[in-house]
Amino acid sequence: MEFYRDIVSTLLNGVDSEKGHAAARNALHLAELIPGGLKVVEVLGTPSHRRLNDPRLAVTLGKNVEPHLQVKLDNRMILGAGWDKGGISAEAWIKALGAGGVEIGAVLARPQIGNDKPRQFYNPRGVALNRLGFNSPGMWEVVGNLTRYDGKGLPIGINVGINNDILPAHNDILPAQAPQAFAEVVNCLYAFGSWFTINVSSPNTPDLRTLQDPKFLRDIDQAVLDTMRQRGGIKPTYHKMAPVPDLSKDAIEEIVKVTRENNLSGVVVANSTSNESTKRLFGWEGQLGGVSGSYHQYRLDTTTQIAFIRHLVKGDPDFEIHGVGGINDFSSAQEKFQAGADVLQLVTAVRQKGPGVIAEINESWVRWMDGRRIKTAEELEDDKGSKTDYFRQMFTGLNKT
Ligand SMILES: Cc1cc2nc3c(=O)[nH]c(=O)nc-3n(C[C@H](O)[C@H](O)[C@H](O)COP(=O)(O)O)c2cc1C
Question: In sequence order, what are the residues at sequence separation of 6 or more whose Cβ sits closer than 8 angstroms to the Cβ of residue 134?
């Protein structure tokens, strides 16, 4: 009998998904505050009862930024945005559960309650629907939370969103406050973030995805980058994009083009999907929200999107891709790495497999490297993108109609 799968997960099936999630997050937070708490989490939460540290898995983010602003991760597995929106459990994930880093957020300038509850749902097949709608304690509370981590050198990314009332961006008119709203959060959290992700792809904030259009994205980037320059230099910065089929092939190309023109570090691929036929498969037809997790078509769509982008930027090894979408074990993580992602993120798999899922993936990765006699991080790097062509051929992104 497996403790998480057979007992905890079964019990959680009877609990509101958002409440179960909050309880897990609060438990990790508490462990950070109690002396010896992180050790207990490490022993109970990882498959080998200790956090694995293998130098072959180490990676540096932000190859295009000044060396002192680059980010060194112990491994390539990141807890993705949405699991810890306020930044209260990052130390537990990194120091006890073996994550290479944590992307907190989305963080907004002002507190926002989000959509009406219930707004987060889980299907036992490992798939989630959420329409949280950018619930955020606001950037000042997040500053308070992250201050606790001062001097600990934790690699924490900040997923940056904007308050609902800044939008809608309709009729091709970008609300004048949108670039400043992103920049305001970056300014406030500059000292606390190792990297920043400009989130223009949450499906739950009406019209947010419109901001993926280059004519808006350029102004947002300029505001964010100007702020960083004034604060001491540009840190690794990414655009987070929607998946196919929500986004067309042309739109993906345009986002990548703007990312390169503005010399951002890369892209996070991808957010959850609002595709209606995917929702229907899980009984969520007609419901607002984004689907994520281990549904095979979503996993494949995000993998082939990564391969498509890696091919687009071939010849530019500094362009970084965070691969996200349906990762829940080593083979799904390796799939995205071999498609061309530099690092991997996961969220829904924490609910499906438990908090040991990142350590489990890293342990399998180490066993795989041992079997292949891979001795250094550089040798592992050779495997990145080894199946870009294979997955690119399966890319199904459509042109804009
Ligand atoms: C409950 C929940 C909340 C999320 N909140 C955010 C968010 O605030 N910002 C964001 O960029 N992505 C958010 N996401 C999307 C995830 O970061 C990720 O892109 C998506 O879930 C796909 O990864 P997965 O299949 O591993 O879950 C959220 C996902 C879930 C399940």
Answer: 106, 108, 112, 114, 161, 163, 164, 202, 204, 205
Residue 54, pLDDT score: 97
The count of structural domains within the chain is: 1
Beta strands in 213-352 (DSSP E): 237-241, 266-269, 290-293, 320-324, 343-346
* Token pair recorded at residue 364: 């399998």
Q: Is residue 362 part of a domain?
A: yes
Closest CA to 347 of 274, 253, 268: 268
The alpha carbon of 123 and the centre of ligand 1 are apart by a number of angstroms equal to 15
The CATH number of the domain holding residue 111 is: 3.20.20.70
Mean pLDDT, range 42-57, rounded to an integer: 94
CA distance 284 to 288: 9
- Residue-wise pLDDT for 258-282, tens only, equals 999 999 999 999 999 999 999 999 9
The DSSP symbol for 236 reads P
Ligand 1 centre from 76 Cα, in Å?
18
Cβ atoms < 10 Å from Cβ of 15: 12
Q: Which atom of ligand 1 is nearest to the CA of 106?
A: 8
Residues 6+ apart with CB under 8 A from 158: 103, 104, 105, 107, 185, 186, 189, 192, 193, 195, 196, 197
Tell the residue nearest (CA) to atom 18 of ligand 1: 271
> Is position 75 within any domain?
yes
Residue 400 belongs to some domain of the structure: no
Ligand 1 center–CA 43 separation, angstroms = 27
pLDDT digits (tens, 9 = 90+) for 380-394: 999 999 999 999 999
Radius of gyration of the chain (CA): 19
Q: Report if residue 399 sits inside a domain.
A: no
Tell me the whole-structure pTM to 2 decimals.
0.97
Instruction: State the virtual CA torsion across 232, 235, 238, 239 in degrees, nearest 10.
Output: -10
- Domain ranges, residue 205: 3-392
- Ligand 1 site residues (CB inside 6 A) read 80-82, 85, 105-106, 120, 128, 130, 132, 159, 199, 202, 240, 271-272, 292-293, 324-327, 346-349
- The one-letter code for the residue type at 101 is G
